[in-house]
Amino acid sequence: GYLGAVLSSRPVELYNPWYVLSFAADEEHLLRPYWVNTSSDDLLRRLILQRGFGLNDLMESLLRGETVELVLDENIVLREVDLREDALWSFLWFSGYLKAVRAWLDEHHRVNAALAIPNKEVETVFRRLFLGWFEQGLPSNRDLGRMVDALLGGEVERFQDYLGALLLHNLSYHDPAGRQPEKLYQGFILGLLVHLEPRYEVASNAESGYGRADVLIAPREGGRPGVVMELKVLSPGETVSHALESALAQLETRRYAARLEAGGARPVHQYAVVFDGKRTHVAGPARPSS
């Protein structure tokens, strides 16, 4: 089968004939995404976004040009892709949206592979996908910029208002009560990655202080503000105030801001973000870390 060929052969460089011919026929000879523009991203949008897989840790690593190691399944069927995240990655590999840099059999005779985005053209598909997903909940790029300004400026109430408006619009068709809602909410927050690069690095579940912060926004140059967030989904019977207090206490006791402070971020804004269905609640400490 196809997996056997991957295991037994050396990696080779392949060139898309359609892309090469389209480039040659282009009078301006510009590098355009010729191949990806011939098809729709509707299937990717439904599988990755609407099913709640979102911009998770694995996709974040891929967008940074890194590889992710996963188990591949040669016998997946399309209906399973809707339900299983592991099947989704196999589907993306089979369909050419990911490539296997290397592959090996583990002790259970399962095929493992180090997957990566194959080229810049396919990378534009994913970035365009998440960019559109993030922007569609805001009325304009100007409002998106204002939300980012409020986030980096420590303006808790303004950030809550803009983020709440985005979630309210998008969650009208993304079901937060479905599969692993924490991933869905985190996917929205990590959409900031698209807008803050290359001035900032956005990391999720990153080691800092005495644990792992849900979201870290680290400036690539010292002297710029940094952000650390603790995200929580409101539990049944729990009050919003209790959830916010718990998140703020975790930020304080686990010293999540330590990594940003050591990297020269000034000031560091810490946010507790609680999600209650389509409602968003944000709180911050009395003073940012400086």
Structure described in brief:
With 290 residues, the chain is α+β, with helices and mostly antiparallel strands. The protein has helices at 2-8, 17-25, 42-50, 57-63, 78-81, 85-94, 120-135, 141-153, 156-170, 181-190, 192-196, 240-253, 258-262; strands spanning 68-72, 99-105, 111-116, 200-208, 211-219, 226-233, 268-276, 279-283. It is globular, with a radius of gyration of 21 Å.
List keywords for this structure.
globular, 5-stranded mixed beta sheet, 290 residues, alpha+beta, 8 strands, 3-stranded antiparallel beta sheet
Give a description of the structure.
The chain has 290 residues and is of the alpha+beta class. 43% of the residues lie in helices and 20% in strands. It has helices spanning 2-8, 17-25, 42-50, 57-63, 78-81, 85-94, 120-135, 141-153, 156-170, 181-190, 192-196, 240-253, 258-262; strands at residues 68-72, 99-105, 111-116, 200-208, 211-219, 226-233, 268-276, 279-283. The chain has a 5-stranded mixed sheet, with helices on both faces. A 3-stranded antiparallel sheet has the order 1-3-2. A hairpin with a 2-residue loop joins strand 7 (268-276) and strand 8. Helix 8 (141-153) crosses helix 9 (156-170). The protein is globular. It starts with a helix and ends in a 7-residue tail after the last strand.
